[in-house]
Specification:
Structural class: alpha/beta
Number of strands: 9
Distance between the termini: 17 Å
Low-confidence stretches: none
Helix content: 25-40%
Order of helices and strands: EEEHEEHEEHHEHEH
Largest sheet: 5 strands, mixed
Strand content: 25-35%
Length: about 190
């Protein structure tokens, strides 16, 4: 099966960790995809459970200026003493408040990347992979929810000799998802 058509497929990524020593052998880059069919209460990446961008709030960075309150078109943010409250049932993840925040207290968890764009980031660490036997780990959420993206990325990595590991919950619901596991050697 040739996956050349998948190199421009997109995945929703909420974090990229470089120079990692977990989730596989050697020095690795781990990408975390958003979305998981399970909602485990013990999940170590709860920010990866929903399959859409979400507003991230770091309270330690908030000075309570309130600049984000008036810019929110959904009225999802309210000022509360020295900080803000976010009504996540109203927030649509538009990011207007993120642009307004001068203290980096707000950000969006989840940005869309093509397999090719992520590969450009990953391949810059090739010397570390070669020296340590490392490579790429695709985790999440659940990687197999983005099978076209994963297949394109795996093909790009394999063409350059980069090892790929998949961190999965094991709840695979599609034939292409099973193909992802097969291509990664699971």
């Amino acid at each position: 099966m040739k996956d050349a058509g998948y190199k421009n497929a997109e995945g929703l990524i909420f974090n990229i960790v470089r120079s990692s020593f977990v989730d596989g052998y050697g020095i690795r880059t781990t990408i975390f995809l958003k979305g998981c069919p399970l909602r485990c209460i013990w999940c170590c990446n709860p920010e990866g459970q929903r399959k859409e961008p979400e507003l991230k709030f770091t309270s330690e960075n908030c000075n309570g200026c309130g600049n984000c309150v008036s810019i929110c078109p959904q009225n999802a943010i309210a000022l509360n003493d020295d900080s803000i409250n976010i009504d996540r049932t109203l927030c649509n993840g538009c990011g207007n408040c993120v642009k307004q925040c001068c203290r980096d207290a707000l950000d969006i968890w989840g940005k869309w990347y093509t397999a090719q764009k992520i590969f450009e980031i990953i391949k810059t660490d090739m010397p570390f992979y070669k020296a340590s036997g490392g490579g790429l780990t695709i985790g999440g959420g659940e990687a197999t929810l983005y099978p076209e993206f994963c297949l394109g990325l795996i093909e790009l990595c394999h063409e350059e000799g980069i090892n790929v590991a998949i961190d999965t919950c094991g709840y695979v619901t599609s034939t292409l998802g099973l193909e992802v596991l097969k291509k990664a050697g699971i």
